[in-house]
Amino acid sequence: MKTAFNSIVFIFMVMSMTTASFSATTSISPEELVQLQLDAYNAHDMDAFLATYSDTAQIIEFPSTVQAVGKEQMRQRYATRFNDPTRHCTIVNRIVMGNTIVDHERIRATFPEGVGVLEAIAIYEVVDGKIVKATLKVGEKKLDTDVGLPRHSEK
Known about the structure:
The chain is of the alpha+beta class. Helices cover 37% and strands 41% of the residues. The chain has a single domain (29-154), classed as Roll (Nuclear Transport Factor 2, Chain: A). The protein has a six-stranded mixed β-sheet with strand order 2-1-6-5-4-3. Residues 1-23 form the signal peptide.
């Protein structure tokens, strides 16, 4: 009986240590969180994308126009984007300062006029392991035909 009790106590201790160890290793840096968000964006995985944001996150068009508040509005905003198989974001440059990440992004997408790219600056603010605000400054789009590249269907 004493051996069985000792075994149970040992198993409980190992499970407790494993759980504590897992919890300690699951916290990620703001930069890693923003990268997870980008990876989900490029995979067109809406649930994984939204999981990186707080429930009350704000999407702001620079300098201060609110585009979406909360995950449901974000889901509506990004649904069309995630249905575009061409859409893919590449980081040109990233600056990390504490809980703020600034990305210079190059986004390939299908626009009503055709396939092309646009550049953007995204400023992500992270609090308690979630993105609470993303401020976006979007540049002009350039269609593939504008820069002499073949149309997407020709590749």
